Task: inverse folding
């Protein structure tokens, strides 16, 4: 049990990021929350939303409000009892309202492929005739440069907002992650940690490496055919500074701590879920950018 607690603590103090107007933390994102409980394979659609507001400290007339929307097809399948493969295909519909007007950016994002190995799988009886279950998955994968990166970062007129408005990073990036679930009866904890290592693209620009973690507690309410699982938790995200020609890009790098609340519904082979995230503490662009709200919803089908 001490090893389990230690692992959870490691996950809680891990980090990542989400796109924002000037802080330089764009460039593809991967969210792991409560994964569906499927026997063999699944496919689904997830919707992600985030809203940020920026106002320059030295010139309050310069402002922007950014709305990031992504619709993502995701799926997975098992290979035997120890391995599974996951895929994520995002489509972005982003909107920016600033002192110059309104702009839109739509299109395919960077596709991510991952493989995972089940390192731990324990089922045993606990006190009060309850069943204790534990699973630990570790894995990694690649983010492919399928999204467009159509900007010249060396141009002096290019802003961080222009960089973050891109649909992809223009680079092949590497991902490491761990997923741990502990349930005792109807109560459980789901913890995840992801580290994303970005590489240089053809313009010699590198988005900052990202870390993310979530720790979510849930309670399963079961009927004869359906389940309802309300959940609550906390997430911590951070990103390193972006790099151009071996130099750090100003106002890039960030961190944020979010409170998470949501609910999952299970109907035979269909899963529906949603959550909302509210910032508890944050630091983007030296305080000039503020995350207002994040949310996610999904529908998933077991095949």
Result:
């Amino acid at each position: 049990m001490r090893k389990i607690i230690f692992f959870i603590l490691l996950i809680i103090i891990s980090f990542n990021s989400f796109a924002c107007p000037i802080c330089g933390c764009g460039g593809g994102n991967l969210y792991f929350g409560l994964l569906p409980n499927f026997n063999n394979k699944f496919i689904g659609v997830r919707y992600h939303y985030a809203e940020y507001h920026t106002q320059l400290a030295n010139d309050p007339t310069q402002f922007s409000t950014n709305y990031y929307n992504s619709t993502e097809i995701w799926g997975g399948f098992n290979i035997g009892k120890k391995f599974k493969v996951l895929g994520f295909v995002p489509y972005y519909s982003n909107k920016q309202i600033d002192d110059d007007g309104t702009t839109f950016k739509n299109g395919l994002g960077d596709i991510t492929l991952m493989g995972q190995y089940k390192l731990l799988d324990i089922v045993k009886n606990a006190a009060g005739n309850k069943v204790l279950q534990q699973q630990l998955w570790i894995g990694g994968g690649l983010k492919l440069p399928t999204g467009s990166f159509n900007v010249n970062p060396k141009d002096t007129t290019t802003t961080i907002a222009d960089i973050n408005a891109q649909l992809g990073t223009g680079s092949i990036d590497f991902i490491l992650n761990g997923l741990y679930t502990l349930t005792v009866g109807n109560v459980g904890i789901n913890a995840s940690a992801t580290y994303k290592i970005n590489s240089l693209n053809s313009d010699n620009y590198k988005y900052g490496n990202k870390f993310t973690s979530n720790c979510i507690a849930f309670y399963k309410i079961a009927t004869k055919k359906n389940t309802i699982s309300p959940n609550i938790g906390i997430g911590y995200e951070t990103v390193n500074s972006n790099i151009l020609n071996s130099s750090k890009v100003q106002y890039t790098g960030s961190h944020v701590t979010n409170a998470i609340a949501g609910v999952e519904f299970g109907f035979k082979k269909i899963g529906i879920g949603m959550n909302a995230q509210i910032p508890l503490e944050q630091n983007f662009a030296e305080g000039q950018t503020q995350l207002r709200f994040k949310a996610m919803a999904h529908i998933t089908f077991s095949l």
